[in-house]
Amino acid sequence: MLAEDGVLLREGLVSVLARFGFDVVAAVSDAEELVAVVAEHRPDLVITDIRMPPTFRDEGLQAAVALRRLRPDLPIVVLSQYVQADYATTLLSTGDGRAVGYLLKDRVADVQDFAKSLRSVTAGATVIDPEVVRRLLHRPPDPLTTLSTREREVLSLVAEGHSNSAIATRLFITEAAITKHVGNILTKLNLPPTDQANRRVLAVLRYLRA
Prior knowledge:
This protein is of the alpha/beta class. The chain has ten helices and six strands, in the order βαβαβαβαβαβααααα. It has two domains: 2-137, 3-Layer(aba) Sandwich (Rossmann fold), CATH 3.40.50; 143-209, Orthogonal Bundle (Arc Repressor Mutant, subunit A), CATH 1.10.10.10. InterPro entries: CheY-like_superfamily, NreC/VraR/RcsB-like_REC, Sig_transdc_resp-reg_receiver, Tscrpt_reg_LuxR_C, WalR-like.
């Protein structure tokens, strides 16, 4: 099953797949149609572009995630024009992380390697484009992971809008201890040395985004 909105690339992929022994049961141009035809044909492999109509954002990826919720073992390969490490992470979180692939469209030019990757995914392997792997390995660590359990607890209460004194009452410790925890949190999150109130807001934003 193939989903690609670009006519020339879609037809080119159909030809390449047929050349290497794949039987393309349907080739569609949008994510909504992809979900429908997968339900109808129950293919052994789905190949989909990430950015699809109508918004050309991540419709293809969202369709892939939805399909994996329905069939956690469904092999899916997503194709992307750009390196988006977050997209790869989202895809890997589906099912048990097996039988999925994230490849850049540039790799399709090496048709033999492309076909080999497709067969690997169909067999249950996970295939991620080397450039995406590099980006994943070199992403800066999340500073929230450096917080202690108590500091995360304090930050969650700050996010709920509680003052230091209120947090101290809730946690049965002194307000001075809370002040120290908040200071440690702000330092570990590498927040700029602006006024304390603004730094608390920035800390909460970091927490909510995470």
